[in-house]
Structures are given as C-alpha cells and as structure tokens.
C-alpha cells in the first residue's frame, strides 16, 4: 500500500484499468467509481491521451531545459480556465499547495493562514491535520506540530465567523485556502453568497485567496468551481484531472503575484516540473475539454446513477442520501442538514463505509468515505452493471 488514503481499500490487487472498469489479478471486473481518486475524468487510458503521451515520450522524457510543449500547455490552462495570467507546473497537488502558500506569504509579508475543517491540502507537515479532542492537530506520528502554528482551522461555509477572525487578525493573515467545493469530506457546495463574501473580505484586507481545485478543477466543468460560482481567487492549484491520469499539477494566478516565482525572489523547484510527456497529457486533456467537453455525458450518467441509488435505498425502506453533483457525489445514511464538516459528522458515515466494503465485493469500486466519481467512459452498460450490483450488494449487506 503506497498511499494512506488507500488504507481503507480492500485486499485486492488490480492489473487493468480500461475505460470505466478495473480488472483484478483474479479476473474480477469492477465498475470504477473512484477513478484513481479523481484523475480519470475521461475514463482510464483513453486513446486520445495515451497516444499523445506515447508520441511525446518518444520525442523526449526530460530536457533539463524549457520544452516546446510547456508553453502551449500553459496557454491552454490559462485560456480554458479563463482568468489566470501565469502557470507553474508541478507533479502533485501536495507540492503546488506548498508553492501557493509560500508565494502568498512572500507577497503579503505575513505568515498566518486560514484553512477549513475537513478540507484536504496534501500530506505535508504544515497542512495535514486530524480532529482529536475537539482540536485540529498533527495527524501523523513524526509530524512537526510546530509547522501547524501559523495555521488556523475554521468551520467552512460560515462567513460571519471568518469575518470576525479577519477583522481581528487581518493584518497577520497571508492567505485563506479552501476547497471551493468541499469534496474531500462529503460533497458540499458553498452556501449562496459565501464565496463572494470571502472574496470581498480577502480583497479588503490584502489577503491572498487560494482555491484548492485539485479535485474540483476540470471535473465540475472546464472552469472548475471558480467559474461555476463566478468567484475568482488570487491563486489556485490544480492536479488530478488536469493530466487525465498522468501526474501533473499546476499553480496558477495573476501576473503580479505569479511573477514573483522563478525569475522573481520566490523559489519553487522540481526535477520533473513541466515533465515533457506530462505536458502532452495536459494539452490532450484540455483540448478535449475545450473542443469536445465530457460534461454533458458525465452529467447525464451521474444523474441517472444518483437517482438509481436513491430508488434502491427507498425500495428496501432504507433511505440513502445521495448528494452533490453528478460529476462527484456523496452517498451516506442519516438525517442531518449538512453544510460543513461538523454537520457531516452527524450522519452515519460508518454505516455507509460498511456498505461500501460489500459493494466492492459485488464489483463496484468505491471508497468507504462515500465519494463517487463519474467519467466520460461510463456508458449504459456500466450504469446497468453498477445499479444491478448495487441492488444485490445492498440486499446482501442488509441480510435480506
Ligand atoms: N488538495 C486537494 C483538494 C486534494 O483532494 C488532494 C488529493 N486528494 C490534494 C490537494 C493533494 O494532491 P496529491 O495527492 O496529488 O498530492
């Protein structure tokens, strides 16, 4: 097991990921609704992506200098997103989050960062937290608690509370960082007007607003959450779907901020940054997003799947909550009104986790934390298989 996020996975080894399906070494077929934790927006290994990367790999694996594809890849990122001026490519979401935080601290000359309960920003010492005894603390043994000192963790979707903290401490706050749609814990959209209010407060106090769109970017639409809600951050980070399954990430932003990186005074480095085949992946993925958007089919499929899961729950008299968007939704049991991490905890998340384990046994590859993703490769056969398997899995799990 090479990622702790996979620790809750089953004891299955996989050998193929093709379209919307996975195949295990024992030749068990799975309909995949985890999609590599998000990247496989177009399904696994689509021909348009693998052939572009194969060609680029024959041209060059690595230059140790500027490659020709990275210029066009950067232009595409800016034009598809439609607001940033500049891009800096990395490999993972974790590292571009760090670049964004460093840049925000450099441009403001301040150190404090506000972040939110239940939002994930990578596994490094200054951002990895878990709630223990009502406080957000280091989540891992060996993690330096001191690295968390300048971070304040607030409930999300509460503009009043954020406003109070900013009024009090605004002079010390370098950045507010958030998942603009909370996808890592449940799938919770921002309350109407929330992002606009956060935007206004940050502007008024000279605070850098960072959107972590590592999951939402290119998944919820070509412009991610920023365009969906019409709120533009100062900096944003992307990963996952940006490379469609190849490891690529990006920090993007306005020129007055971004120009401090690289040729400016803010250091950001990486042997594999703007990795040549990865740039071909970005180009292929974003040209596809621009010219042949996958969203209509994903939305149609996801909507039927969400409805189908709800109907199965109702048919057994065990209502399932199916919430979020057709491109990324959350399945759980419970009655609470969910607006943030705390209200999410009032649901019976463990009950769903135990169901998810049975669904995997029945051939649906899903995470125990309740999140489901849909890709462009999911078609009628996958819908049929997923719902049939869900029904038998649910029946089995209920013991009926
Ligand atoms: N930010 C968010 C919102 C994420 O969902 C993730 C990964 N799940 C990361 C950052 C970290 O990205 P990576 O795993 O590529 O380092």
TrEMBL record:
CDD domains: OAT_like (cd00610). Keywords: Aminotransferase, Pyridoxal phosphate, Transferase. The keyword Transferase applies. Its cofactor is pyridoxal 5'-phosphate. One of its GO terms (molecular function) is transaminase activity. Belongs to the class-III pyridoxal-phosphate-dependent aminotransferase family. This is Aspartate aminotransferase family protein. The lineage of its organism: Bacteria, Bacillati, Actinomycetota, Actinomycetes, Pseudonocardiales.
């Amino acid at each position: 097991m090479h990622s702790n996020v996979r620790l809750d996975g089953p004891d299955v080894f996989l050998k193929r990921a093709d379209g919307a399906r996975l195949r295990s070494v024992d030749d068990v077929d799975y309909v995949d609704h985890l999609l590599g934790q998000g990247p496989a927006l177009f399904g696994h290994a689509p021909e348009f992506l693998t052939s572009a990367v194969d060609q680029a790999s024959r041209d060059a694996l690595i230059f140790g200098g500027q490659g020709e594809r990275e210029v066009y890849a950067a232009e595409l990122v800016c034009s598809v997103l439609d607001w940033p001026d500049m891009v800096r490519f990395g490999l993972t979401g974790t590292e571009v989050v760090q670049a964004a935080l460093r840049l925000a601290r450099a441009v403001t000359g301040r150190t404090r960062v506000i972040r939110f309960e239940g939002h994930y920003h990578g596994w490094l010492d200054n951002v990895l937290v878990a709630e223990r005894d009502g406080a957000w603390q280091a989540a891992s043994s060996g993690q330096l608690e001191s690295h968390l000192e300048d971070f304040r963790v607030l409930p999300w979707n509460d503009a009043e509370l954020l406003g109070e903290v900013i009024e009090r401490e605004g002079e010390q706050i370098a950045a507010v960082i958030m998942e603009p749609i909370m996808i890592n814990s449940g799938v919770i959209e921002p309350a109407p007007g929330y992002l606009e209010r956060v935007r206004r407060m940050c502007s008024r106090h000279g605070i850098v607003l960072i959107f972590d769109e590592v999951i939402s970017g290119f998944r919820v639409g070509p412009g991610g959450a920023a365009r969906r809600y019409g709120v533009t951050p100062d900096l944003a980070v992307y990963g996952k779907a940006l490379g469609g399954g190849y490891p690529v990430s990006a920090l993007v932003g306005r020129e007055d901020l971004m120009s401090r990186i690289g040729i400016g005074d803010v250091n950001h480095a990486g042997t594999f940054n703007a990795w040549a085949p990865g740039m071909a992946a970005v180009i292929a993925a974003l040209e596809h997003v621009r010219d042949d958007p996958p969203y209509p089919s994903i939305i149609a499929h996801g909507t039927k799947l969400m409805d189908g899961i709800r109907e199965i729950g109702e048919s057994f008299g065990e209502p399932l909550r199916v919430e979020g968007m057709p491109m990324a939704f959350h399945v759980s049991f419970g009655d609470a009104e969910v607006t943030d991490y705390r209200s999410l905890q009032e649901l019976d998340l463990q009950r769903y986790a135990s169901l998810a384990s049975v669904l995997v046994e029945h051939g649906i590859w899903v995470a125990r934390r309740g999140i489901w993703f849909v890709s462009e490769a999911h078609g009628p056969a996958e819908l049929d298989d997923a719902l049939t398997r869900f029904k038998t899995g649910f029946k089995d799990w209920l013991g009926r």
